[in-house]
Specification:
With 386 residues, this protein is an alpha/beta fold. The protein is built from 14 helices and 17 strands. The protein is elongated, with a radius of gyration of 23 Å.
Length: 386
C-alpha cells in the first residue's frame, strides 16, 4: 500500500531521516510531501519516531486532475468511511503547477456542497493559507472522527491522502521549553533536530555525545531506543549537572523509565580524555553538536569570521582522531559543523580533511538546518568509520 509523509520546515533532512529509518526509499515528491510504497509501516510508531514529519497517512486513491473537480469522488470516500454524525473535514492541495492548484481551488466548497446534497451535515475547516496546523487537526479529532485530506499533484497524477497521525506538538514543546535546565548562552540544540540526528546515526547498541551540553541528544536517544547504552560527556560541570536534572525530570514525567538511569552515564571531561572514562567501550554511534562559535551579529569583519572558522576546525581536527578510536568500522558520527554568516560572506566550517585522516568518509552531502535570518547555520554531516 502507498503512504505519505508531510515534512516540516527542513524536508531535505526529513527525507534523509526517513531513509535512515525505513531504508533507501525513492519517494515521489510533491512539494514537501513524500509518497511511497512500503510494507514496513506502523503509523503511530513512525509518527513518534520521525521528528521531521508533521503528519502522515495512507494514499486511498490515485486519479487524474479532472476527476476530482466536482467533489463527488472525495464524497464517495467519506461515505465509505463513516465516522461522526456530522462530517468535519480539512483539505490541503500541494505540488503541481500553480495552474494545477488553481484548478482545484474550489474543491473544498464543491465537496461540502456535494455532501450537503446527499443529506449530510458538514463543516469545512481550514487555516492560514489553506493549511490546517497539525495541532488543530489533533484538537478537532480529524484523524479519528473527521477527515484530513492531502491532495498531492505530481506529473499527471493526483494522489489522495487521508491523514492518520499528526505530530504531538505539545510533547515536543514540553521537552524543549519545559525541561528544568536550558542555557541560551551556550546554545540549545532543538529536540527535533537532536532526534533527527539520532535517527541519521542509526544506533544499534551504544551512543556517545562527547559535547553533550544539557543532554538533549542523550534524552532523545533514551526516548527513542529502550536498550541503548548512552554516554554523555562535557568539559563543563554545570552542563553535566543540568543534563542530569533534565534526565531526572524525564523520569519524573514518566517519559522514560527509572530503570533507564542504569544505561545512561555522564562524564565531566574534555574530549581529549574521553577514552580514559569509557575504557573498553566502542560506540557504533556518536551524535553531537559541539562548539558553534561565539554569537554573531552579522556585522563582524571577515577576519573575525575567518579566525572563528579556523578555531572551530582546529577543535574538530583534535577531536576526530580521538573519537575515531572509539568506533568500530561502519560506525557513524553525526555532527553539526556551522556556517558563519555575515555581511562579508559565509565562512563554512568543514574539517573534512581531518575527518578523512582520522579514518572517516562522508555519507552524502551536508544537510542545512537554519532559519533565513540566522547568522550561525547548522550543517548536519554524517561520517562513517572506514
Amino acid at each position: 500500500m502507498k503512504h505519505f509523509l508531510v515534512y516540516g520546515t527542513h524536508p531535505e533532512i526529513s527525507l534523509a531521516e526517513t531513509r535512515a529509518v525505513l531504508g533507501d526509499i525513492q519517494p515521489v515528491m510533491a512539494d514537501s510531501v513524500a509518497i511511497f510504497e512500503t510494507e514496513a509501516w506502523d503509523s503511530a510508531d513512525l509518527q513518534n519516531r520521525l521528528a521531521g514529519t508533521v503528519k502522515l497517512g495512507d494514499i486511498i486513491d490515485e486519479r487524474t486532475l479532472d476527476v476530482l473537480d466536482d467533489g463527488k469522488l472525495l464524497a464517495d470516500h467519506i461515505e465509505a468511511r463513516p465516522r461522526a454524525e456530522r462530517i468535519l473535514f480539512s483539505l490541503t492541495i500541494v505540488g503541481g503547477s500553480n495552474k494545477d492548484r488553481q484548478a482545484l481551488k474550489h474543491l473544498p466548497i464543491r465537496l461540502k456542497r456535494e455532501l450537503q446534497e446527499r443529506g449530510k451535515s458538514v463543516r469545512w475547516v481550514t487555516g492560514d493559507n489553506g493549511i490546517l496546523a497539525p495541532a488543530a487537526i489533533s484538537k478537532m479529532g480529524l484523524t479519528t472522527d473527521g477527515y484530513d485530506f492531502v491532495i498531492a499533484i505530481h506529473g499527471d497524477t493526483v494522489s489522495i491522502g487521508l491523514t492518520t497521525q499528526v505530530q504531538n506538538i505539545d510533547a515536543w514543546s514540553l521537552r524543549d521549553f519545559g525541561r528544568p535546565f536550558r542555557d541560551a548562552k551556550t546554545g540549545m540544540l532543538p529536540p527535533k533536530l537532536a532526534r533527527m540526528m539520532v535517527n541519521l546515526a542509526a544506533p544499534t547498541s551504544t551512543l556517545l555525545d562527547p559535547f553533550c551540553g544539557s543532554g538533549t541528544v542523550i534524552m532523545e536517544a533514551a526516548l527513542l531506543h529502550k536498550d541503548l547504552q548512552l554516554v554523555g560527556s562535557d568539559i563543563d560541570a554545570r552542563q553535566i549537572k543540568g543534563a542530569q536534572e533534565n534526565t531526572e525530570w524525564l523520569m519524573a514525567k514518566e517519559l522514560i523509565r527509572r530503570a533507564d538511569a542504569d544505561r545512561i552515564s555522564w562524564k565531566i571531561c574534555p574530549v581529549q580524555e574521553i577514552a580514559a572514562h569509557v575504557t573498553g567501550k566502542e560506540f557504533d554511534a556518536i551524535v553531537t553538536e559541539g562548539y558553534l562559535g561565539a554569537p554573531l551579529s552579522g556585522n563582524e569583519p571577515a577576519v573575525v569570521l575567518e579566525k572563528e572558522k579556523q578555531e572551530i576546525e582546529e577543535l574538530w581536527a583534535e577531536a576526530l582522531p580521538i573519537l575515531s578510536k572509539l568506533q568500530p568500522a561502519g560506525g557513524r558520527l553525526v555532527a553539526v559543523w556551522p556556517d558563519l554568516v555575515g555581511s562579508h560572506g559565509t565562512f563554512s566550517v568543514s574539517p573534512i580533511q581531518a575527518a578523512e585522516k582520522a579514518g572517516y568518509s562522508m555519507i552524502g552531502k551536508p544537510l542545512t538546518y537554519a532559519r533565513p535570518d540566522q547568522h550561525i547555520r547548522r550543517k548536519i554531516v554524517i561520517l562513517m568509520k572506514k
